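User: Please fill in residues for this 342-position structure.
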């Protein structure tokens, strides 16, 4: 056999029954979902900042980070909505390496999917309870969506997933804002076709059922840079890139045109310190161009308690074990700078 079936996983309902979201926090999520929706649709002029670790690898530092973020949110609430990145799956280009807490709750031990499903939900629940901020996550595996769909206020579809039919169709059933990243090739048409697919209803198979979806009108794009055929990183956050995106949006039958700019990944060449400069350039372009101001609804920043990254096993509290991140002090100041210029 090509597959060895180890053990059945608990159903999403079983996990959610054991680890429920309280009525109070459900109401908070509903309110935040509505605020984020209003920003995407242009009814609310505030700006989104989706910020947090590259990978949420450990509950205590992640929850501490999100709690710090909540204090900042109170100070900038008139101009910004902060969405903590609590990314529980980590895409791997070659398939090797740490794949996130949902698969490997202890990075130094073997994968354990059942423990991972529990760990990711417990971490998300604790972060929401302690901060009253509802998070973003990446839908790397569509079948995992049901385990945390009641917790998330934002979902990203990654650069390697955006061309996949199942990801597009599953996103068409989301009831929260969902960002489609440009593929690693940088092709805007692929990204916009994915937005089109997710904005429309579909019938398909999902978790053993035939399902209908209504289409997700909050689906939009995320510009994260690209990699050329020569292996060089190519940026797509500049003035000219966004104007080209606006022109392409106008030629497609898409509603609620919106873009989030990912300041890391190929836009920064994974030079995490560059995120500060990139965000400031973007905010300047929003000030000088009404079209860019209307299109760009937010930024995505990789940030953690400590700057940079470390190898698995080094045990520096609050430091990324995947891609390098901005440290807390630089991140906090950057949020205040965004608030002053948005």
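Assistant: Residues filled in for all 342 positions:
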């Amino acid at each position: 056999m090509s597959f060895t079936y180890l053990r059945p996983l608990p159903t999403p309902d079983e996990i959610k029954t054991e680890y429920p979201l309280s009525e109070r926090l459900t109401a908070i999520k509903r309110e935040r979902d509505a605020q984020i929706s209003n920003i995407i649709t242009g009814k609310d002029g505030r700006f989104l900042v989706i910020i947090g670790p590259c990978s949420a690898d450990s509950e205590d530092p992640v929850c501490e980070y999100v709690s710090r973020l909540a204090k900042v949110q109170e100070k900038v609430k008139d101009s910004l909505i902060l969405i903590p990145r609590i990314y529980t799956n980590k895409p791997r280009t070659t398939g090797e390496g740490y794949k996130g807490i949902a698969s490997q709750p202890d990075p130094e031990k073997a994968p354990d999917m059942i423990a991972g499903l529990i760990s990711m939900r417990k971490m998300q629940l604790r972060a929401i309870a302690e901060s009253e901020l509802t998070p973003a996550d990446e839908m790397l595996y569509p079948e995992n969506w049901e385990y945390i769909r009641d917790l998330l206020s934002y979902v990203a579809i990654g650069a390697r997933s955006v061309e996949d039919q199942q990801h597009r169709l599953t996103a068409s059933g989301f009831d929260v804002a969902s960002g489609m990243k440009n593929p690693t090739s940088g092709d805007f048409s692929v990204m916009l076709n994915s937005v089109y697919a997710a904005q429309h209803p579909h019938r398909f198979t999902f978790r053993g059922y035939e399902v209908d979806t209504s289409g997700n009108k909050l689906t939009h794009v995320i510009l994260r840079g690209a990699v050329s055929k020569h292996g060089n990183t190519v940026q797509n956050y500049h003035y000219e890139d966004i104007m080209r995106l606006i022109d392409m949006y106008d030629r497609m039958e898409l509603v609620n045109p919106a873009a989030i700019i990912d300041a890391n990944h190929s836009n920064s060449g994974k030079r995490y310190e560059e995120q500060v400069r990139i965000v400031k350039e973007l905010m300047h372009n929003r000030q000088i161009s009404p079209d860019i101001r209307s299109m760009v609804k937010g930024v995505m920043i990789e940030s953690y308690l400590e700057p940079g990254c470390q190898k698995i096993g080094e045990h520096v509290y609050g430091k990324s074990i995947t891609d390098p991140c901005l440290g807390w002090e630089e991140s906090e100041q950057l949020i205040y700078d965004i608030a002053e210029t948005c």
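For context: Residues 57 and 101 are 6 Å apart (CA to CA).
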